[in-house]
Design brief:
By secondary structure, the chain is an all-alpha fold. It has helices at residues 3-38, 43-50, 58-70, 78-106, 108-116, 121-135, 137-163, 170-178, 180-187, 191-199, 204-216, 220-234, 238-254; strands at residues 51-52, 55-56. It has 2 domains: 1-163, no CATH class; 167-255, Serine Threonine Protein Phosphatase 5, Tetratricopeptide repeat, CATH 1.25.40. It contains 13 helices and 2 strands, in the order ααββααααααααααα. Strands 1-2 form a two-stranded antiparallel ribbon. α1 (3-38) crosses α3 (58-70) and α3 packs antiparallel against α4 (78-106). It starts with a helix and ends with a helix.
């Protein structure tokens, strides 16, 4: 891929990383909570989240997108390199979690059934020792989940810092607007810090940028809804008035 193409696609890649992180974080946290309650995760969910080299899942695509955004650029910052490493680490840790889940799903029942039946002394002794190793898999899963949660938390701290350098990215603004509930769920109490970091005391700019992107994509009703949100924050903003004027002109042309 050429440097020029990557530069042109940079806004999309940044949006893809941010969106992929939010979707992956919500999915992985749901699996972590399941493990907290039932000491298990859903192998199928993790398998789909990861995918295969020929059919990459969400987490695999996130890792690749992070490489495009954060890696091998002269202007790369420490924050970007940390995010690249963190998202790659989450991918590999989830891969280990999936494999451990497979062991418990497929081999634990087999061992339990074998050890219920009368066996010669040697097979019983070896079977008991092997089952101890299998039982330790849950301890490994606990550590993997704890590490995933920890790295996710660090990424939530770093993303506002990185995105603060891209306050004019309309695709990021559009994602925050259209998928606001998801972003709020993932960032929780850190949501206000996220938006304040990106839009630097002018939250209406997020809605204006989102409206511009939606309008250019033909989503006029959604664009109007975004402008209405911007007006609630700062009805006198020149940018807000300009975007509202464009949408008002479009409505008049339809009449």
């Amino acid at each position: 891929m050429s440097s020029a193409w990557l530069r042109d696609k940079q806004p999309e890649f940044i949006r893809d990383v941010f969106r992929g992180f939010c979707l992956a974080a919500e999915c992985l946290e749901s699996q972590a909570r399941l493990f907290d309650l039932e000491t298990r995760v859903e192998f199928k969910v993790l398998d789909e989240l990861l995918g295969q080299p020929t059919n990459k899942g969400l987490l695999w695509r996130l890792k690749d997108s992070a490489h495009h955004v954060f890696r091998n650029k002269p202007e790369s910052t420490a924050v970007g390199r940390f995010l690249d490493w963190g998202m790659g680490y989450i991918f590999h840790e989830t891969m280990k979690l999936k494999e451990d889940s497979y062991q418990l799903l497929n081999y634990a029942p087999m061992f339990e059934n074998l050890l219920r039946a009368p066996l010669p002394e040697l097979e019983t002794r070896v079977g008991d020792e092997l089952f101890k190793v299998l039982s330790q898999t849950k301890e490994s899963m606990r550590r993997e989940i704890d590490r995933i949660r920890f790295i996710m938390a660090q990424c939530r701290k770093l993303l506002p810092v990185y995105l603060a350098g891209h306050p004019a990215n309309p695709l990021v603004a559009r994602f925050i607007f259209t998928d606001n509930e998801l972003v709020r769920r993932v960032f929780g109490e850190e949501y206000e810090h996220l938006t304040a970091s990106i839009y630097k005391g002018k939250p209406e700019n997020m809605y204006v940028l989102a409206a511009q992107s939606l309008r250019q994509g033909g989503w006029m009703d959604e664009a109007a809804r975004s402008v209405a949100e911007a007006q609630k924050i700062n009805a006198k903003s020149e940018r807000v008035l300009q975007e509202k004027g464009i949408l008002d002109n479009w409505r008049r042309m339809l009449k």
